[in-house]
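Batch manifest, entry 17 of 40.
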Amino acid sequence: MFGLGVPELMVILVIALVIFGPSKLPQIGSGLGKAIRDFKKGVTGGEDDEANNKDAKKENSKDLPR
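Output type: structure tokens
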């Protein structure tokens, strides 16, 4: 994975700890995880989103009074 081993990851973690402090690291990790998850959904789920939107429109149209 990009030529990063355990020692390199440990150095990056220590630098991040020094820069951001221990209280901010969980928030940064959570935000980064959400961003990566949303990016993957955007790249791979484009077709799925269109199908889900069509299904949602069908369900909403059933709820409307006629």
